[in-house]
Amino acid sequence: MTNFSLIAASQPESLGWWAQQWHDFWRGSIGEWIITRGLRIVMLVIAAMLIARFVGWMTHRITSRIDERFQESDALVRSETTKHRQAVASVISYVAIGLVSVVVLVDVIEILGIPIGSLVAPAAVLGAALGFGAQRIVQDLLAGFFIITEKQYGFGDLVSLTVSGITIPAEGTVEDVTLRVTKLRSSDGEVYTIPNGQIAKTVNLSKDWARAVVDIPVPTTADLGKVNDVLNRVCERAMADVQLRALLLDKPQLMGVESIELDTVNLRMVARTLPGKQFEVGRRLRVMVVAALGRAGIESPRDSEPEVEAMVHPATVGGAEEKTQGPGDGPR
Question: Partners of 265 in the beta sheet?
Fold first, then answer.
């Protein structure tokens, strides 16, 4: 009992000491700085994170709504307005997050008591030093700005981009466009991330409309009048085909002889299609052309190649032994 009473008597004194220490800490310089400035900095950072999350959520909702409208409609391809809106929504989200970050950074500097005027001279020196290294980033941002404002391409476009210093262009479907980079997904599933400032030439393969070009080689011995009649009937049947009629903007046209080679004549057929559907239409037209030429009995250049037979040596021909033997050299 005596020990218990001594511990109980000492507890109020220890609790009072801790309470006094806690009170002195928050009344001190560190505690006051946390209450007055540190808390404001934490609140600003939290607010910036919430705003960034909200902007990202709004951007995702806008793009999802655009996708839903496209999927619920009977359109086979996205309209130019839809593609541009998705690209603009992505850019606006990045710009908004960047502006919020800059504002929060300036407010934090002011709360910390760092005079902004004293940072002008160091910032000028730092800016000059970074200017040499960051000029490519500025170039990317400016190029991305003009890509968006000029509507060169947008989300879902099939493009071919020629990058400076690389001869082979990058081809694929645009998955994302920002002020700094463009992301393409190729037909093999690979994703290309290309800085906008490095793009030397842009070829949009799905802008407003596209054209399918089908070159048809036939042997020089074929009757071109008959071939033209067969191909014109293919053009008529293409508009009657259910699958092709939904992709074609007008009836395919036979342009005539495109080139003449040693043993073949190349005829060209063209068709205006919906944006990005020229490859599908071209494959379907080739199947119809091959089937029509086969039914008409028109051989392909490979089938009409002349056969080259080997010359037989006279010594191997029947009776050659008797002709080549001299008198008295008969068989014994």
Answer: 218, 260
Give phi and psi for 152, each to the nearest 5.
-65, -40
Our count of domains for the chain comes to 1
Sign of the C-alpha dihedral, residues 137, 141, 147, 150? negative
pLDDT in tens, 151-161: 888 888 889 99
As given in the structure block, the two tokens for residue 263 are: 């043993």
Residue with structure tokens 């086979």?
A: 76
Please state, as a whole number, how many other Cβ atoms lie within 10 Å of the Cβ of residue 271. 26
Tokens of 40: 């404001």
The two beta strands, 253-260 and 199-204, are: unpaired
Candidates 313, 300, 231, 238; CA nearest to 273 is 238
Q: What is the distance between the alpha carbons of residues 93 and 19, in angstroms, rounded to a whole number?
A: 48
Domain limits at 221?
210-295
Q: What is the pLDDT of residues 179-221, one digit of tens each?
A: 889 999 988 888 999 999 999 999 988 888 888 899 999 988 8
The CATH number that applies at residue 286 is 3.30.70.100
